[in-house]
Specification:
Elements lengths: L4 H17 L12 H4 L3 H4 L14 E7 L5 E9 L6 E6 L18 H6 L1 H12 L5 E5 L1 H8 L5 E5 L3 E7 L7 E5 L2 E5 L4 E8 L2 E5 L1 H9 L7 H19 L23 H8 L4 E5 L2 E3 L12 E3 L1 H11 L11 E7 L4 H13 L2 E8 L8 E5 L3 H14 L2 E5 L9 E5 L1 H8 L14
Parallel strand pairs: 1-4, 3-11, 14-15, 14-18, 16-17
Antiparallel strand pairs: 1-2, 2-3, 5-10, 6-9, 7-8, 12-13, 16-18
Helix pairs in contact: 1-12, 6-7, 10-11
Length: about 425
Amino acid sequence: MTAIVSRQRKRLLAAMLCGIGAACLLPIGGVYGARTLLNSSGGKNVDASGALKIPATPAALLVTVNDVNVATSLTAFVLDPSGAGGTIVSIPVGSRAEIIGNEAPRRVGDSFTQAGLAALQLDVEGLLDVSFSVVGAVSATDITNVFSMLPTVDVTFDVPLINTSLVMPDPATTTTVKRRSTETTLPPQPIATDTEVFPAGTQTLTADQMTLTLMAQKLSEPESTRLPRIKSLWAGIASAVGTGLPPEQLQLSPTSTPNEVPTDIGTFMRRVFAGPVQVWQLSAQPLSGADNPALLDLYALDRFEVLMIMASVAPSSLSLPSGSLAIQVDSSLNDANVTRAVVERLNYIGASVVLIRELTDTPPQQTIFRYSDKAMVELAKVGLEAVLGPLKYQQLKKPVEGISAQIVIGQDFVNFLGSSPALPPTTIAADE
């Protein structure tokens, strides 16, 4: 038997909760550090009185492509509901794609080279559980045109930035290969040449140099070495943007309406640069052994970190599992680790966190569960209290669009986590 009692209980609880929550569940579409991760307009522009309407937070995917058709960086841009500013999320190119059946593990970035932009979009949307409004694969010239509208940017390289280029030798050079009684003359072969672009340390970059930072790759260099400088570049850009660059500097039309979603990646990026920007880079764990039989430069993302980030900054772009219970999480603890734990535990029982808000109120002592239907209370006592600890129950005073229930995290949950209650496993050996 491959499904154990805990998995069956999880499915049963999720089905019962979803059945009750369906009446109020409506479709909702498709950082400089942990302390500011949840401090985003995606959550803060929601009416705290309970008359909730999830704001529009469209997302775009930027793919930088070098001259040999290899994706060198992946970046999600999320536009603030005001229409200016937003969030930049750096995604490792070597992230492991979601696979089906006996499909071999693969990198999402390789989808571009093998099957094109549409395949890459599907892979990244699957990783992030979002739908992108705009997707663009850009060359060095394209991205430089956007960066040219920015001021110079300070970026810190923890190691020297080295780029490998293929250089053709003297055309007269040939290689002779002997095979038994025959000889074969081969044409000149390109030679891989490493060039140090920047030394380690802080550099002030122009538009061309920003582009080179995204495009440069050293042969056989693991992506884990490249990721810190990519994060440093976006953080430097966010710092240079400050409270937002003037529309005329970004060549944005003053007649653009806040709710208008840009149709091309360049305009989308410039709209983000028109307001304050926060930056996050997804955590990536190198994979080896049975998880990476082909010895690829392959990384596993933290699924619950991903869900936490996207529910915080891009709630209207989330893609919900069909029939799942949609939950809003409010927290005044300002601790991303605690919020991630909430997301993991709700996901364990089959609930979907579709909106996360970081509030400025004093955290309550008790964790509060606000329900739309009183029948949820008994079910919550069965499932939610097992993973979140004791709850205080309150009825929602007003209907909430797109949300079946609200959870306000209290100090009791932090204490509950401190007791280290492990989540039961979801699988067991077949003979058990």
